Amino acid sequence: MSTLEGMTPGTWTLDPAHTEVGFSVRHAGISKVRGVFSDVSGELNVTGDTANDTGLVTIQTNSVDTKNEGRDNHVRSAEFFDVENYPQMTYKITGVELNGDEGTVKGQLTLRDVTKDVDLAVEFNGVAVDPFGATRAGFSASTSISRKEFNVTWNAALETGGVMVSDKVNITLDVEFTAPESSSN
């Protein structure tokens, strides 16, 4: 049995002010475009045995920010996230496997009504009590997905060969949760 040391059983709440969900995708085969989502919510149900821990993270797709308004509007369009028809993507946590402070979060990503098993490589950064008395736990995680598997297929051919946007999307998360008895600050 593996546990998240210092995390008491109960429902821990994601603190959006101290969380970042980001992504990067290869652009024109020569550089990467990065973005973040500013509207994220969720919870982690800690049981005392990580194999049984569950949770749900919800991301509002219209909160995407790539630091370019025109690109953001294109990413929100039907060619990518189609935010009018799919305003959210979710990640349902089905268990955690840890060896020390590193391991895997098992879960299911739903994007554009397509649900796929997606594992996250995770690092448990520990638990701390902040100056306001809130108990907090931090995690860093990453994974890669195929856009095509989630029906996000828009692309444009380049004169030199290749395509404008790679299929592979790298996802990184820095997530902070507050304990059931704590409040966010």
Description:
There is one protein chain. By secondary structure, this protein is mostly beta strands. The chain has a single domain (10-178), classed as Lipocalin. Helix content is 4%, strand content 53%. The protein contains one helix and twelve strands, in the order ββββββαββββββ. The chain has an eight-stranded antiparallel beta barrel. A hairpin with a 2-residue loop joins strand 7 and strand 8. The longest helix is centred in the middle third of the chain and has 8 residues, at 69-76. It starts with 9 loop residues before the first strand and ends in a 7-residue tail after the last strand. The model has no long low-confidence stretch (mean pLDDT 87). This is Protein YceI. Residues 11-178 form the Lipid/polyisoprenoid-binding YceI-like domain. Belongs to the UPF0312 family. It comes from Kocuria varians (Micrococcus varians).
Give a short summary of the structure.
With 185 residues, the protein is mainly beta. Helices cover 4% and strands 53% of the residues.
Characteristics of this structure?
185 residues; mainly beta; Lipocalin; 8-stranded antiparallel barrel; globular
